[in-house]
Specification:
The protein is 67% helix and 3% strand. By secondary structure, it is mostly helical. The chain folds into three domains: 268 residues, no CATH class; 211 residues, no CATH class; 54 residues, no CATH class. The protein has a two-stranded antiparallel ribbon with strand order 1-2. Strand 1 and strand 2 form a beta hairpin. Helix 5 packs antiparallel against helix 7, helix 7 packs antiparallel against helix 9 and helix 13 packs parallel to helix 18. The longest helix has 32 residues. The two termini are 36 Å apart.
Length: 539
């Protein structure tokens, strides 16, 4: 068994074990889940240290599964998925440990759901077979359904049903596009679901907008992009704290990842067709999310709406279709998981103490819980992109890439950073400073050692990426260069007219191998205005 198979199935195996664990030994459930998630995270570090930037897909595994229909168990990781897998394993162990005091009922099912969710997310991130990706994409809905529906807030059923209906509506359209593309590749008489073979297909021009729209809708709902975002605040507010961490740090990333891995490189002409629409929706999402955040009176709801704005920046960088913007987009996906995940953790911690998330119920608590307050302030500053924090690096690269393509839209988006500073600093002032209005706040206890242990890794990453992002940029840069070259070259390929069938030689173009890559330009070359030059200019 390879390392990726271990990372996929080990959490599921422990999850099954937890479900059948004896009821008279429930005190061991937390320990078993913690040890398992710690082993998982330590094992995932192998990917970080053994990964060779620029070598394409690595740690690959390929086993025939349903041979008759070209379905295989094919997995691999490249610079695009590497950091997202590591983020998933880190947030899982943090979610497990952070739930010790907040979850007291249904321990076996709760911790099993967290581990099953980790299996689904990692499987989707590393799948290089489109059928396998879709299986993991759908499977992850089940544990999240239970996490919100059983351990959520008062309106958990409404939030759960809304989340599932939105996601499945987009997924079904994507399934139709997957089946069409499979049939085009040869169908049952020679078709394949191998992603690398699909990269070699030349899809007819007339079909690409429809196929891209089907994939893009599924991913846009998952991100979520405006106007498909309405399920997110409800899901976040009703989910338990760890569920919100997993939702923000892992599930939402699958939407942005899906654009990078599937929608754009498979249907580049469809991407080009909808480019203006996506640009506008990204900018609207950025500004709308920031404005909606300003008027929230619930801390968790405020953080949830801020995600709509932040993930709009991720789409903005991707839309620039240059290496600077794409690098910022991918890095910002990781940054959002770190910063927003930490915010949801902190909100959950203060809720355990006061059992309220209303901003008006706080005030002046800095003097009572100084450690908690300092941690919240650091994370808040990273969320608004203060220089020296991870948020600044990602947003700077995104705006730099976007300005070279659509300066007016990038300028409008940049104004949202001012709004972000407004709503986050206003939140900090109302919660932590001023007089203590409610005497009950005088007895709030500060962070415990366990709670501090869950926050320290995230705080370290916030400063590390903000001060020295080079190790992260080095790992993602070459594969993003390959992705960019693929997307642009496919747009320049002369496609078959819509009323003519594609010749077999065109339909079965030689696919790029998993270990293929585009050799980056010299590292001393600064990024050009269109962003094609490699990331040596901002090392």
């Amino acid at each position: 068994m390879g390392i990726l198979s271990f990372l996929i199935f080990f959490p599921a195996l422990i999850g099954v074990l937890l479900l059948v664990w004896p009821n008279d030994r429930l005190n061991q459930v937390r320990s078993l889940a913690t040890v398992a998630s710690a082993i998982q995270f330590i094992a995932s570090l192998w990917l970080w240290f053994d990964f060779v930037p620029g070598n394409g897909f690595q740690f690959t595994e390929s086993v025939d599964w349903i041979t008759r229909y070209g379905i295989g168990y094919r997995v691999g990781v490249d610079g695009i998925s590497l950091l997202l897998v590591l983020l998933t394993t880190l947030l899982t162990i943090i979610s497990v440990v952070s739930s010790y005091s907040s979850i007291q009922a249904g321990l076996k099912g709760y911790y099993a759901s967290l581990l099953f969710l980790e299996t689904g997310v990692i499987g989707a991130f590393v799948a290089t077979d489109v059928f396998l990706f879709y299986v993991f994409w759908e499977a992850m809905l089940i544990p999240m359904y239970f996490l919100i529906g059983i351990w959520g807030g008062e309106r958990r059923i409404y939030a759960t049903v809304k989340f599932v209906l939105y996601t499945m509506a987009g997924s079904l359209l994507m399934l139709v596009a997957i089946i069409w593309t499979y049939q085009y590749s040869g169908g049952a008489t020679g078709g394949t679901f191998n992603l690398f073979d699909w990269y070699g297909l030349t899809i007819p021009t007339a079909a690409q907008p429809w196929l891209f729209a089907a994939f893009a809708l599924a991913f846009a709902i998952k991100v979520p992009m405006f106007p498909f975002h309405t399920w997110l605040p409800d899901a976040h507010v009703q989910a338990p704290a760890a569920g919100s961490v997993m939702l923000a740090g892992e599930l939402l990333k699958l939407g942005t990842y899906g654009f990078l891995r599937f929608a754009v490189p498979l249907f580049p002409l469809g991407f080009e067709y909808f480019a203006d629409t996506l640009w506008i929706l990204a900018v609207i999402g950025i500004v709308y999310g920031a404005i909606m955040t300003l008027i929230q009176d619930d801390i968790k709801s405020l953080v949830a709406y801020s995600s709509v704005s932040h993930l709009g920046f991720v789409i903005l960088g991707m839309m620039a279709l240059n290496i600077v913007g794409a690098t910022g987009s991918l890095l910002q996906q990781v940054n959002h998981g770190i910063s927003t995940g930490a915010l949801f953790l902190l909100v959950g911690m203060i809720y355990e103490r006061r059992h309220t998330r209303k901003i008006a119920d706080y005030g002046g608590i800095f003097a009572v819980v100084p450690v908690f307050s300092i941690a919240f302030l650091i994370v808040a500053l990273s969320s608004i992109g203060l220089p020296g924090t991870n948020g600044f690096v990602g947003e700077f690269l995104i705006l730099l890439g976007a300005f070279s393509t659509r300066p007016w839209l990038a300028g409008i988006s940049a104004l949202a950073i001012i709004l972000a500073a407004g709503y986050m600093l206003w939140l900090v002032r109302r919660v932590f400073f001023g007089p203590i209005v409610h005497t009950v706040n005088e007895t709030i206890r500060d962070l415990s050692k366990r709670e501090l242990a869950t926050l320290i890794p995230l705080l370290i990453l916030i400063i590390w990426i903000g001060v020295y992002p080079k190790p992260f940029l080095d790992r993602i840069g070459p594969d993003l260069q390959t992705w960019l070259a693929k997307a642009r070259s496919q747009q320049m390929i002369q496609t078959v007219p819509q009323n003519e069938p594609a010749p077999a030689a065109v339909r079965k173009a030689t696919p790029p191998r998993p270990d293929s890559t585009i050799v980056p330009p010299p590292q001393d070359e600064a990024p050009s205005r269109d962003g094609v030059a490699m990331v040596g200019g901002f090392e």
